[in-house]
Each structure stands twice: as structure tokens, then as C-alpha cells.
Amino acid sequence: LKQNPAAVLHLDEFGNKLRHGLKDANGSPVVKGFSALKEIYSQADDILSPSAFSMIAMSTKQRAEFMQQNAPIQMPHLNILAVTTPGQLADAITDASVEGGLMNRFLFITASGDVVENEDFNSTPPEWIVEYMREVSEKLTPNNGGNLQGLTDDCSTLIPETVLFSFCNQSMDALNMFKKEIKDLGKSDEFMADMSQRWRENAMRMALAIHAFCEPENRTILPSITQWCIDYCRYYGKKFALRTLELAQPSEKYGQRRKAYLQAFREHPEGMSSDKLGKMSPWRNDAPSFRNGLIADMIASGEIARVIGEKPARGRAPRLLVALQC
Q1: Is 314 exposed, middle or buried (0-12, 13-18, 19+ CB in 10 A)?
Q2: Sign of the CA dihedral with 181 first, then 182, 184, and 188 last
Q3: Residues whose CB falls within 8 Å of the CB of residue 256, separated by 6 or more in sequence, listed in order
Q4: Which residue blocks in 43-126 are alpha helix, DSSP H?
Q5: Which of 21, 169, 226, 318 is deepest in the core (most CB within 10 A)?
Q6: Percent of the chain at pLDDT above 90?
Q7: Helix (H) or strand (E) holding 174
């Protein structure tokens, strides 16, 4: 985003990357990257600021370098086009990623049809689409030529020239009806309430993008495009939610095991090490992958935490898992 605040990112094996981003140890680069995605999504019309960091011990030169490397990014727009398999995605998704809102910021499309054999792929875009995008950019931002021109090596601190598009009254009526539909859906189904939170916003963003691409000089978003995007986000949103339930651990077993884990942690206020978890009930009764995923969810939700235990006479201080809520 520092190189190009309006970026398109292509990712293969997305499920594996997502799994590392949600389940690796805190502090890893992948975890930091995925934890920033929600903020990037929400700050599209604002400023993405770096995390607070003390510069008291830094020299003047170090402070200048730090400020340059961590300068706020104006109006970040990160577009991710990724592919994965259902199995990889099922292994990656956690309760925390659903309840916390990360998953509903994505729009997942299920591919169908015959599997195509891998062939040499030419990643160079067709010349017609490059030329058309230049024309659209010129119409939207005539003063600087748009993002395809490349203003400087680092334009992340520059405030872009914005263009206002408005939804017509018919489009707003459709969006308001969709908002009510989503609200009613969430009243009877907590899982669908979490999964559908961003459907309306995703439909609005998609409608804006398609309209700006097709009719950049018309600043009113047409109801036909708006309704199509609503139908699209609803259809694939529901399809992905149902697919997620099919692939996930059975909810009854998951809930029972999570309750048993929490009770066991509370019965051991001194904390439990990873070695003990594999030897004691209830933890030893589950596969390591299931156990580790459930514990990661409990840490993310604030039920348990990793702490450093008392240092023994020899060796390093143990890392322990302790319950936080009584």
C-alpha cells in the first residue's frame, strides 16, 4: 500500500495463508498482515495510521527513518483476488474470524464445472483493458491521470483527487430493503447475523466499482446495477455461509469441547503447559489440529491467555495457558 495505495493483490493457496494469519503465534508478519485487513477495509475513505510506538530511545536519524517507513496511508484501497480449495478454507476459518468480522469482508465465489488442466498462463493484461482503464482514469481524475500513471515512487501520503458518485432514490430504496432483510435474517440465526453483516456494504462497493467502470461520466449509480449487486452478494453470501457450516467441525461437538476446555483451565489456575495438554483430559482426547484450533479461538475471544510462568532454577520459564474469566 505504501507503493500504491490503490492496489490489487493476487493470492494463490489463500486458505493456507489465511490459516497462518489466524492461527500462527502473535507477532508473525502473516498475523500482522491479516489483522490489518479489517482496518484497511474500514479506512477506505480515511487514513490508515501505524500502530503506536514509542520513539523515546531513538536518535534523531532513527526517528526520521521510522516516520518515513511508518507514514500514514491516505485512503487505502486493497483489492484481493485469491483462489483456494474448500478444504484449505475450512481448516483456516475460526469462530473468532467469523464473529470478529474478518470473513464477512470477503466475497467468496464457488467455482463449478470441469477441472481445467494447468496451462502456461500469460499474466499480461489485454491491451484493450489497459487502454480503457486509462480512459476511465482520465475521466475520473483529469488532473493527475489516475492510479495507472504512477505519480511518484511513494504516493501513499498524498490525498487523492476524489469523485462523488450518488445512489439514485430507487437504488437507495433497494439498499434499505436489503438492510431490513439482513436484519431480519440475523434475528433468528446468530451465525447468519455474523456472516451477513457486510453484505449491504459489499453490494454498495461493488455497484460503485461497476458503475464507475461502465459509465464514469454519469455520477448517479443506476438501480439496475445496484439490484444486480445486491442479488449477487446475497446469493454468494448465503452459499458461502452454508458451505462453511458443512465444512466446519460439528457445532454441538465444538461447543461441548470448548466448554470442557474452559472448565478444565479454570480447575488449573496455575496454568497448563503445552506438554501437559497432550497428556491430560480433556485435551488429550482430541486431535492436535482440533485442539490447537479450539485453543486459538479461546485466546482470540479472551477466555484464556498465554502467560510466562515462574522461572525454575534451571532452564527457561515455561509458557502457560490460563483462564481469564471466572
Answers
A1: exposed
A2: positive
A3: none
A4: 60-69, 86-92, 95-99
A5: 226
A6: 16
A7: helix 169-188
